[in-house]
Amino acid sequence: MFVAKINVTLKESVLDPQGQTVLRTLHDQGKNLISDLRVGKYIEMKISASSQADAEISAKEICESLLVNQVIETYRLVVEKV
Amino acid sequence: MKVRVVTFPGSNCDKDVGSVLESEFGAKVDYTWYKESFSDTPDLVVLPGGFSFGDYLRCGAMAKFSNAMDSVVKYANQGGKVLGVCNGFQILTESGLLPGALLHNRTLKYICKDVDLIPVSENKIAKEIKGTLSIPIAHGEGAYFADSQTLERLEKNGQVVFRYKQNPNGSLNDIAGICNEAGNVLGMMPHPERAINPYTGKMDGKQILEVLLKK
User: Fold this and answer.
1) If you classify domain B2-213 with CATH, what class do you get?
2) At A6, is the secondary structure helix, strand, or coil?
3) Which member of B13, B86, B94, B141 is catalytic?
4) Structural domains of chain A, with CATH
5) In CA terms, which of A4, A15, A30, B214 is 20 to 30 Å from B173?
6) DSSP 8-state assignment for residue B104
7) For the whole prediction, is pTM greater than 0.90?
C-alpha cells in the first residue's frame, strides 16, 4: 500500500485573492515579515499498487485528470510506502 | 423544437431554464440525469446553473465524468448547439469544450445582482443581439481566466460573446461569455433564463435564447 500526498496551488501567474486576503490580515496585525502567501489544498489518497513506480503513475494520472486543473493550478506529488 | 437539459446532483436551475424554454418558446424539453446517455440530436443542449457535486474540489470538475457529458461532448463535436450557464459554463471549461477556467471572484464575495452585458459585435452569436442587455449573475467563482495566448486567440477569432460593462468579478478582458471556435458551444456566467418573463422584471435574456434556438 502507498500513500499519495498532493499539494495543489494556483499557478504563480494566477491571482490568489484568498492568499492575498490572508496576507493582508497578517500585515494588519503587524506581521510584516511575511511577504508572500498562497492558499492551496492538500489531498491524500491511499493506493494499492505492486510498486512505488506504479503507484506514482496512477497518482499522476489521477492528479492530471481530476484533482488538478492545469489551466490554473500546479501540484506537488509525493508517494510514500505505508 | 427539442431541447435537452442535463441535470447533475446539485443542479438547481434545470427546471428554471426548462420551464422558460417550454412556456416562452414552445420547446419540447427532456431532462437527462447525469448517469444517462443520449444519442439523439436535439436543437439545443443546456447545462444549467447550480452547484454540481456540491462544487467540491473545483466547480464543474466532477461533472465532466458522467455518461451525460460523454454524450454532450460527442453531440458538440458533431456540431450540436450547447449552452452552459454559470455552473454549466464551469463544466464546459472543465470538460475541455471551452478553453480557460473560472476562478473565485476577485473580491472573494458571492455576487448576486443584475449586470449590463455588451454583446461583442465580432462574434457570430452576439452580432444578432441588439443593445446592451441587463441580465442577473449569481456566482462565487465566475472570474474568467485563460493564459495570454488563449486570450489572444479568443479575441482574434471573435470567440468572446459577451463582456461586462462593469466587471463584477475580475474576469480577464471583462469576459462574461465565450464560444468555441466553431461557434456551437456557448458558455456564460449570467443567467439569461432569469430575465425572460415580465414577472421577473426583465426580459433581456429572451434575445439570447432566441438566437440559440434559431435553426
Assistant:
1) alpha beta
2) strand
3) B86
4) 2-81 (3.30.1280.10)
5) B214
6) P
7) yes
